[in-house]
Sequence to fold (48 residues):
Amino acid sequence: MSKKKLNAKREAYQKKQEQQGKSVVNWIFGILVGLAVLYLVYLTISMA
Fold:
C-alpha cells in the first residue's frame, strides 16, 4: 500500500476510536449521575 493510503486509514481509525472513547466516557458519566440521583432519592425516603 502507498504511504498516503496507510496514513489515511490510520487517521480514519484514530478518529473512529476517539469518537467511541468519548461515547463510552459519556455513558459512564451518565450512569454515575443516575446512580447519584437514585442514592439521593433513597436517602430522602429513608430519612422521612
